[in-house]
Amino acid sequence: MTNVGNYIYSGFVPLLKMAITIACGFALAKKGMFPAAAARGASFVAMNVSLPALIFSAVVSAFSKDNIASLGPLCLNAIVYQFIGLALGWLIRECLYVPADFQWGILAATTWSNWGNLPIAVITTVATQSPFDKNVDPTLGTAYVAVFTLVYNITFFGMGGCKICAWDFRPGAAEVLPIKQRWARRRQAFRRLWGRARGTMEARRSPTLSLSDLPYAETPPQISTLANPELEKSMPPQDTIDDKLRPDAQDIISTGYANASGSQAPVISRYRSHQEVVATVQALHDTIQLAPVSSRVSRNRVIIPGREYDVPDDVVPKIRDSQEGPGRRPPRSRQSPALSTNAASAPAPANHPASEHSPQAKGGSASWYRTPLNILKLTLTPPSISLFFALPISLVQPLKALFVNVEGWSGGRIPFSPDGKPPLNWLLDTASFLGQICIPLGLILLGASFARLDLPKPLWKLPIAAIVAVTVAKMVILPVIGVLMTESLSNHTSLYPKDQKMLRFVAMFLSGTPSALNSLIMTMIYSPDGRADTLSAFLALQYVFMFISSTALAAVAFALIA
Q1: CA distances from 462 to 86, 142, 347, 349, 474 (A)
Q2: Is 529 part of any domain?
Q3: Which of 177, 312, 337, 470 is the residue whose CA sits 20 to 30 A from 362?
Q4: Total domains present in the chain
Q5: Residue 302 pairs with which residues in a beta bridge?
Q6: What is the reported pTM?
Q7: Residue 197 placed within a domain
Q8: Most distant pair of Cα atoms in the chain: their distance
Q9: What is the pLDDT of residues 244-292, one digit of tens each?
């Protein structure tokens, strides 16, 4: 058999063993012998007992001060994979049709990958073959995967990434526009932005620039009236805000066009310095108040440096709303004293978040510390806690000598137990024993979850283009980037030494795993009807295609590290 055949066979055999185990879970669930309640209990055992025990035994045995430096490169790869997946998901969402209930879920599906039992099952089997050391590399590979698991827990649970799955089900979620209309609006916005930028640059180059010369300028309301004094005199009196400006603002703000006589076009004067611009904007923000009047169609005279024209009252709130946007803080209220008193005396709604979490509700206590504490609580999952305890033990020689043999410590400074082993070696054996059930149990749970997936029917109504694009992005594009990135770092830096074969294999292989199943669980939790049909369709194709793409990825990784 040629070398290529050897590499393909070496990459396919671990996946074949994994596929058989997944098929067992699928068959049990289809026959009704592994119901959802049993799967839920088994998942708690796997996540809270077996996986932490596996991570603890692997990290304590495998990590040392010689290879602890590999934590940095692995974290770097994990973060880069997540950011690239996020960018690919956003690109797919903007270019292809994605259902309205999956606009944010597609970002979660492309960002977070299955970095748990699935890659551990493959790596522990691959590590027993050449060119790996079957005595050391299976445990070392599990420890390396634990680093990716830690990054996943921090970003998905600790930093609130799981909440993205809930954004598709918000009460005020808007309907998605068709792609053509969406891009037409964006082209118009880009043209307006480009026109403003060109006008600003031309105004800076020229000391005086006519308003009609600007490509983006539009004739302001009542511009013809302002240019003709006779028409302005014939108009009914209007309420202005000139009397409400502070004296210092009156000195800064000009009160009209520089040349507004006759038919001359108004002229915009250029500011001499950035400080004057800032002072003018601050004066406008602090002084201009638009007070309602009793007339049926009231107007307010808005004064801007170099311009003065009338704006209807109903336009101003729209302008303010468009300037505030969803991500900006609204301006401070300028209500009348009566309204302010009523607003202050009115009790806050009982279900309003501010009434529960505001400093006033808790006696004025500061809440700046709550966010870090929440992140810490969400990050401290059983696998993460196990890793946090295992890392110091593996690096501190006296502590490690309590569990495994350490040269210079075991049998001398730290005596052996009566059975000739380190004093706490029994604890490490227990953790290893519990960890052995993690991989097969996790694969059986994966197969059972596939059996319970509800794919929408008919299938031709699914967003086929987006499903295929996500599969290609996760299982083809991202692995290519991961292999190129790891090999580049190995050839040009010391982050991935050539002799660290398992380190390089893990970094490359974990770039090509399918989407995490936790996204499916969180979507079902947040969904009003408890279903996640669209996400199920996206996951199904990825996990079917995984047996082809992972075999190819493992073969390429074998060829590069051999």
Answers
A1: 22, 37, 48, 42, 19
A2: yes
A3: 337
A4: 1
A5: 309
A6: 0.61
A7: no
A8: 111
A9: 444 444 444 444 434 434 444 444 444 344 445 445 444 544 444 444 4
